[in-house]
């Protein structure tokens, strides 16, 4: 059988053997999504009641047969198996279902680069079955699960890239995370920190302003203390030479750099902070601390440095 590609996040796009195909009936599309995402066999009676809750049983069963015929006309009988009492979707090697891919997305962001090129949309966007039944409840739950899987993946990828010192890639993932959860303070803070690492404090301010306006408009609230503290610690401007020096490649130091900046921001807001930087000899602790002190001095801080050797 030819491989099938089912892109269900956003407005559905279906391909069979590389050619785009169309399922004209919204109920047939809903049936396809249910069979694919749930997997396994499903009783005809259950499916008929799920998709046609307001119809008489005989009418609902007839409508289910029509939806089954519509799917088989597009994908073939071998793909949509039917027994006397149940239906199932048959998955084959080489098939792609984006919603299922995101459920088990790889921890390595480079492994998912092609899939993650565009931020996925809402599951089955635009699908309106005009029924307030169990299917709509199922769909809303699946949408919630799908968005949670995508946002958590982008969050993990951003952290992984930041740990590697790949701030630009980390920022792309953090921005995708923020696009999906614009009210999430952790996403905003991550975006702000990465903008600072890349030498763009003005972009960090813009991210804060957008978040502040969103909270005021939709929730009647204000940003939290962490964001305010980080905002107040931002430089008015960063000299180009200092930016180039501070943001030169520093493999594996992006996350510690952000953590130390956050500690500095909290100290400005709430008082003295104690931070311990530890690690094996030669991993770059001195360079890291020197860069953070240079950054702090650029904000107007007065730093004292002492050293001891054993």
TrEMBL record:
Record domain Bacterial transcriptional activator: where: 97-235
Transmembrane spans: none
One Pfam family linked to the record: BTAD
InterPro entries named among the record's database cross-references: AfsR-DnrI-RedD_regulator, BTAD, TPR-like_helical_dom_sf, WH-like_DNA-bd_sf
Superkingdom in the source lineage: Bacteria
Gene3D superfamilies: Winged helix-like DNA-binding domain superfamily/Winged helix DNA-binding domain
Signal peptide: none
Designated name of the protein: BTAD domain-containing putative transcriptional regulator
